[in-house]
Specification:
CATH architecture: Roll
Strand order of the largest sheet: 1-5-2
Shape: globular
Number of domains: 1
CATH superfamily: Gamma-glutamyl cyclotransferase-like
Helix content: 10-25%
Structural class: alpha+beta
Distance between the termini: 40 Å
Strand content: 25-35%
CATH topology: Hypothetical upf0131 protein ytfp
Order of helices and strands: EEEEEHEEHH
Radius of gyration: 14 Å
């Protein structure tokens, strides 16, 4: 159960444990590893600067990530540190739980033709691979 003054979110990019922006979560409590239902695509935006996830009607994959519980202040800090154009929206996890994640407009991904990394095992796996270099 989430405490009434806390919010659970799904993280699937540069704020994951072991990634460079993890400190943006401040003292948020790690709850568990998780993955989305196969409704999303993941791209490497800005020459690998940050992940870009969006929902699709078909052809989606399950995106691995982590669930955290944040205070309102921690959530506001995280939102303020997200790259431009990212926005909070609902995502559906494999178990049906609906949480907030930071998504990216599909039209901007297409405009800049950022690489689709959906089938590479998630953001951390992509960053650890030679593909990201």
């Amino acid at each position: 159960m989430t405490a009434p003054d806390k919010k659970r979110i799904f993280i699937c990019g540069s704020a994951l444990r072991g990634q460079p922006d993890h400190q943006n979560l401040q003292e948020a409590a790690f709850i568990r590893p998780a993955a989305t239902q196969p409704r999303y695509r993941l791209h490497s935006a800005g020459n690998g600067w940050h992940p870009a996830i969006y929902e699709v009607e078909s052809g989606g994959v399950s995106i691995p990530g982590e669930v955290y519980e944040l205070t309102q202040a921690e959530f506001e800090h995280l939102a303020a540190t997200e790259p431009p154009n990212m926005y909070p929206s609902d995502v559906v996890l494999e178990d049906g739980e609906v949480l907030t994640a930071f998504l990216y407009p599909q039209e901007l991904i297409e405009k800049y033709n950022w690489p689709d990394i959906s089938d590479l095992g998630g953001w951390a796996a992509y960053k650890a691979s030679s593909v990201a270099e």
